[in-house]
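From the methods appendix. Each design record in this collection lists the tokenized structure first, followed by the designed amino acid sequence. Records were kept in a plain field format so they could be parsed without special tools. The example shown here is representative of the layout used throughout.

RECORD:
FOLD TOKENS (356 positions):
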């Protein structure tokens, strides 16, 4: 049985089914795409980098002590050595495989004295060569004393300035560079730590600055990614919905026919003529007499009942074009009882689906 649809109804059904089909297809794709992961912390390490120093002094007439502690202003001509202690500690709750290396380097740099500091020249010195770290324990601990000959680096800076004939600010940066890779149940974690001190060179006096040191321990989380399982029931329901909606969309698109308004109107008139033909009288001319009262009857059935009560025929104006017939009426003296077809409301609403 083939279904004919009103044009507006067909458009609405096609739009609704295609929209729902797209939505369900998207949800199905989202549900079955590459698996999502839930990140779960399986271990936590506490990491701390530090550097401490003291400044050894040459014999002088100003200071009674042989050295000065941190956070002082140091007179360059009095400085002998700078004694540094670099430390790095890593502690965890569980035994994990920790690998890596560390080294201590000194870098003398000439830089532009601008807001955005730019390195103009640089010379690097290796104070402690690369040392391997490979433990399978709860953590690691590194502590290295590194003496710095201040006069040696200061003289080197003065020599470069003299050779280049460019007067620039110069600094000495001493760093312990620690490279770590922590393996375990979770994703491997790679970290670089570089506690450092910065010492100005070629200047009458200076202060020492610390870089990349931790006042408090830094947390390092070892994360394990656990795949989130898909809901099989939701997937099954979405597949069924996609199949149904696709079938509905194809059926409406290719196996239904759009019914025009004129076709609906003609079918309505034919039905009335067929059902009440023996009760109807076709007039070849329009009734032109005036009526004292005109009454509008709600339905054809009501008009037939009225004609039976009054024992009067039901008239309509004949036309070879069925679409031109739109009114039926009963005349009783000067009274007119009329049923008029309204195809914009009654017919369109009552004939959404037409079967043949």
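DESIGN:
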């Amino acid at each position: 049985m083939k279904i004919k649809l009103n044009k507006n109804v067909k458009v609405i059904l096609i739009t609704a089914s295609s929209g729902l089909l797209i939505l369900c297809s998207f949800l199905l794709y989202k549900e079955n795409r590459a698996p999502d992961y839930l990140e779960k912390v399986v271990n936590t390490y506490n990491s701390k980098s530090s550097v401490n120093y003291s400044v050894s002094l040459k014999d002088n007439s100003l200071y009674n002590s042989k050295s000065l502690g941190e956070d002082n202003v140091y007179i360059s001509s009095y400085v002998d050595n700078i004694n540094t202690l670099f430390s790095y500690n890593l502690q965890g709750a569980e035994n994990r495989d920790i690998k890596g290396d560390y080294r201590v380097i000194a870098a003398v740099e000439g830089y532009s004295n601008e807001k955005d500091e730019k390195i103009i020249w640089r010379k690097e010195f290796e104070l402690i060569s690369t040392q391997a770290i490979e433990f399978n324990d709860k953590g690691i601990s590194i502590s290295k004393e590194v003496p710095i000959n201040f006069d040696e680096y200061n003289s080197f800076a003065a020599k470069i300035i003299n050779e280049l004939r460019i007067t620039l600010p110069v600094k000495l940066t001493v760093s312990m560079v620690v490279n770590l890779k922590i393996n375990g149940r979770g994703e491997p974690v790679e970290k670089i730590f570089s506690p450092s001190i910065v010492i100005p060179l070629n200047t009458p006096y200076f202060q020492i600055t610390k870089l990349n040191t931790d006042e408090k321990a830094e947390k390092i989380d070892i994360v394990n990614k656990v795949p989130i399982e898909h809901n099989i029931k939701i997937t099954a329901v979405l597949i069924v919905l996609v199949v149904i909606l696709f079938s509905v969309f194809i059926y409406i698109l290719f196996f239904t026919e759009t019914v025009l308004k004129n076709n609906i109107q003609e079918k309505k008139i034919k039905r009335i003529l067929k059902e009440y033909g023996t009760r109807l009288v076709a007039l070849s001319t329009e009734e032109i007499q005036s009526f004292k009262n005109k009454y509008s009857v709600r339905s054809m059935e009501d008009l037939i009942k009225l004609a039976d009560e009054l024992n009067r025929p039901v008239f309509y104006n004949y036309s070879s074009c069925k679409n031109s017939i739109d009114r039926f009426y009963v005349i009783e003296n000067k009274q007119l009882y009329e049923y008029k077809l309204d195809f914009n409301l009654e017919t369109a609403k009552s004939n959404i689906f037409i079967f043949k």
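APPENDIX NOTE: The radius of gyration is 49 Å.
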